[in-house]
Amino acid sequence: MEGSLAKVAEGYNQRLEVLKNARLMSKAPVDSLAQPARIVDELKVDLANINEIVQEGHQKLKSLEDLKLESAAFLEHLKYVLDNVPSKISQSSNNRKLDVAPKANSEPAKTSAEPSKPTVTQEQSVGCQYLDFLTVDEFQSIPKYMKGRLTYDKINSVIEKLDKVYVEKYKIRRLKKSVLNDLNKKRYEAYRLQETDDTRGVHFIVEQDIADFSSLKLDNVLRNIFTILRHCGLMYELRGGGYIRYGCYSRY
Fold it and tell me: Region annotation Disordered: residue ranges (predicted)?
């Protein structure tokens, strides 16, 4: 009998222990899950802050990309400007001479309407006069029938090439013949034959000089540009002896 009661008591004690453990286990998740929930909430707040920072970063990155593109375009523009800086910059002047084209196959008539020859000092006589660049106002004043499809940049590009022709010709012309090679000796003699009393002190070029010292084609486009340069008072012609001499006025 006592053994049976002991077994019953032991059974109850075991059940009580199970109930106690079950009670403890039922309370444990509430306390143990409370802290992870707070952690999850904090993580949500942190993620929201991080997302905001990321969005700001995207905006700054986009601004930097735009700035990079603008900088690249600006650098390209600077490179273009550097590669296309003219050898000289034109200066405006109110004392610009107007050109009166002489009649074909005749010496220039000396009338009051014709501009006088540029005064050339001794220092200038051993150097070279240059054609000045066309200004925007001068380009806009050119009649449409004369300008045609020619652009401002195209005309000034031709002027720059013609300038180099003047330079190369008068490099040879002012040297002593004894220091020249055979080709330049022939050119030197040709230059002397082109000169007359009327061209004394005047720097000019002829079509052969343009062919020798530039890539310009002696076509209708170039002759039209010559007409424009005469119209704007940058160039004039001296005819005679079978030559058309292209002289230039200077603003300086």
Answer: 89-121
User: How far apart (Å, rounded) are the C-alpha atoms in residues 188 and 29?
Assistant: 110
The residues, any chain, with a CB within 8 Å of residue 146's CB and separated by 6 or more, are 224, 227, 228, 231
Pick the CATH number of 122-248 from 3.40.1170.60, 3.40.50.720, 3.10.50.40, 1.10.10.1890: 1.10.10.1890
For 102-126, what is each residue's pLDDT tens digit? Answer: 444 444 444 434 444 444 443 344 4
Q: Are 97 and 233 spatial neighbours (Cβ–Cβ below 8 Å)? A: yes
How deeply is 236 buried, as exposed, middle or buried, from its count of CB atoms within 10 A (0-12, 13-18, 19+)?
buried
**Averaged confidence pLDDT in the chain:** 76
Give which of 35, 80, 99 is closest to 236, Cα–Cα. 99
Neighbours of 224 (CB within 10 A): 15
Instruction: Provide the residue ranges of all domains of the chain, joining segments of one domain with +.
Output: 122-248
Secondary structure of 28-43 as H, E, C letters: HHHHHHHHHHHHHHHH
**Of 43, 111, 96, 92, whose CA–CA distance to 231 is shortest?**
96
Q: How far apart are CA 206 and CA 244, in angstroms?
A: 6
